[in-house]
From TrEMBL:
Domain of life: Eukaryota
A cellular component annotation (GO) from this entry: nucleus
CDD domains: PH1_ADAP, PH2_ADAP
Gene that this sequence comes from: ADAP1
Domain PH, residue spans: 139-240, 262-366
Protein's UniProt name: ArfGAP with dual PH domains 1
GO molecular function: GTPase activator activity; inositol 1,3,4,5 tetrakisphosphate binding; phosphatidylinositol bisphosphate binding; phosphatidylinositol-3,4,5-trisphosphate binding; zinc ion binding
Gene3D superfamilies the UniProt entry points to: Arf GTPase activating protein (1.10.220.150), Pleckstrin-homology domain (PH domain)/Phosphotyrosine-binding domain (PTB) (2.30.29.30)
Length: 384
C-alpha cells in the first residue's frame, strides 16, 4: 500500500507539472503530436515530456535518455522532482540554444530519419550547444558518396556529390575520378524532400532542379541516417545563403519557408490530351507549388508534361466533374482545371482522392501570384 500511494502521489505531481507546462509547449519537443492533451511518456534523465513516437527514438539512446510511461511506470520522488525542476522549455533553452536558422525542425508528421536525427543531434551529439559540430552542414562545402538511382535502368549506384556554395551548385560525378560532372544543379532552382515510401528506402531523398525550365528529378539515399540528414541541411544552408544575397532586405523568417518544400499532393490520376478526344491514361502526378507534373512512373527522371497553375485573378479555376461530352475515362471522379489557354481534364479512382486533389488545386488557385511567378507563367511550356 505505501508503494501504491507513493506512486499515485508521484503521478499526480507529474500530471500537475504537465498541466503547467502544457500551455507553453509548441507542437514541438521532437515533433509533439499531443498538444492540448497529456503526453504519456517522459525522459526522466533529460526532464522532458515526449509523445509515444518519440519515446521509441529516446529508447535508442539509453546512454543519454531513459524513458518511463507517465501512466504505467513507477516513479521515484526524486525523478518527479527532477521533472518538476526541468521541463520542455528548459530543455529547449539548453539543447536548442544554437540551432541555425536554416536547420530543419521536424514535426510529428515528418519521416522517421528526420525525427530521429533531430533527437540525436540535440541530445546525443549536442550539435546545437557546440557550434563546431555543425560544420558538416554549415561549412558551405560538402562532398561525399550517395547511392543514386539510374535514370534508365533504375539501379542505385554510388556516385560522388559535391556541394559548393561558392559556385552556387550541387554536382554529381559518374566516376570518382571524373573531371567533369554529369550534372550541375544550381542552388537557385534546387529543392530536396524526403520520400522514403516512393524511393523504397527509409533514407530516400528526392532532389529536383530546373533544366531548360523543366523539372529534373534525382533520387538518392545513404545508409547512414546522419549522413543523409546532414546533406539535406547542407542543401538548405546553401539555399539560405543564396537567398540572403538575392533578397538582402528579407528576414530569416521570410527566407526559411523557401529553403525546401514538400509537395502539396502526389498520387495517381487519369488524364487525357489537349484535344480531349483520346482515351484517358493513368499517370503519377506531383503538385509542386504551382507546377503540376505528370509521370508514367513515380521515379521517372523527367516529367511527361508540366502544367502551370496560376491564381483565380489570372483566370484559373478548379471545377468538380468533367464536361458532359467527355468520353474515354475509366475512373469516375472527375476534375477540370480551367486555365487561360485550355481546360485540363483528370479523373480520380475514389471520391476521397478527388476531394484531396481539388483542395490542393484550390489552395494554389486562391493564393495571389508573386511577381516572379508571372515570369514563370510567361515562359512556361505546356507539354502535350
Amino acid at each position: 500500500f505505501p508503494f501504491a500511494s507513493n506512486r499515485m502521489y508521484c503521478i499526480k505531481n507529474l500530471r500537475r507539472k504537465w498541466k503547467e507546462f502544457e500551455k507553453m509547449l509548441r507542437p514541438a519537443e521532437e515533433g509533439h503530436s499531443t498538444l492540448g492533451g497529456d503526453p504519456d511518456w517522459a525522459s526522466y534523465t533529460l526532464g522532458v515530456f515526449i509523445c509515444l513516437s518519440c519515446s521509441g527514438i529516446h529508447r535508442n539512446i539509453p546512454q543519454v535518455s531513459k524513458v518511463k510511461s507517465v501512466r504505467l511506470d513507477a516513479w521515484e520522488e526524486a525523478q518527479v522532482e527532477f521533472m518538476a525542476s526541468h521541463g520542455n522549455d528548459a530543455a529547449r533553452a539548453t539543447f536548442e540554444s544554437k540551432v541555425p536558422s536554416f536547420y530543419y525542425r521536424p514535426t510529428f508528421s515528418d519521416c522517421q530519419v528526420l525525427r530521429e536525427q533531430w533527437v540525436r543531434a540535440k541530445y546525443e551529439r549536442r550539435e546545437f550547444v557546440h557550434l563546431e559540430k555543425q560544420e558538416p552542414y554549415s561549412a558551405g562545402y560538402r562532398e561525399g558518396f550517395l547511392w543514386k538511382r539510374g535514370r534508365d535502368n533504375g539501379q542505385f549506384l554510388s556516385r560522388k556529390f559535391v556541394l559548393t556554395e561558392r559556385e552556387g551548385a550541387l554536382k554529381y560525378f559518374n566516376r570518382s575520378d571524373a573531371k567533369e560532372p554529369k550534372a550541375i544543379m544550381k542552388i537557385e532552382h534546387l529543392n530536396a524532400t524526403f520520400q522514403p515510401a516512393k524511393i523504397g528506402h527509409p533514407h530516400g531523398l528526392q532532389v529536383t532542379y530546373l533544366k531548360d525550365n523543366s523539372t529534373r528529378n534525382i533520387f538518392v539515399y545513404h545508409e547512414d541516417g546522419k549522413e543523409i540528414v546532414d546533406w539535406f541541411n547542407a542543401l538548405r544552408a546553401a539555399r539560405f545563403h543564396y537567398l540572403q544575397v538575392a533578397f538582402p532586405g528579407a528576414s530569416d523568417a521570410d527566407l526559411v519557408p523557401k529553403l525546401s518544400r514538400n509537395y502539396l499532393k502526389e498520387g495517381y490520376m487519369e488524364k487525357t490530351g489537349p484535344k480531349q478526344t483520346e482515351g484517358f491514361r493513368k499517370r503519377w502526378f506531383t503538385m509542386d507549388d504551382r507546377r503540376l507534373m505528370y509521370f508514367k512512373d513515380p521515379l521517372d527522371a523527367f516529367a511527361r508534361g508540366e502544367v502551370f497553375i496560376g491564381s483565380k485573378e489570372s483566370g484559373y479555376k478548379v471545377l468538380d466533374g468533367l464536361p458532359p461530352s467527355t468520353q474515354g475515362y475509366h475512373w469516375p471522379h472527375g476534375i477540370t482545371i480551367v486555365t487561360p489557354d485550355r481546360k485540363f481534364l483528370f479523373t480520380c479512382e475514389t471520391e476521397s482522392d478527388q476531394r484531396e486533389w481539388v483542395a490542393a488545386f484550390q489552395k494554389v488557385v486562391d493564393r495571389p501570384m508573386l511577381p516572379q511567378e508571372y515570369a514563370v507563367e510567361a515562359h512556361f511550356k505546356h507539354k502535350p
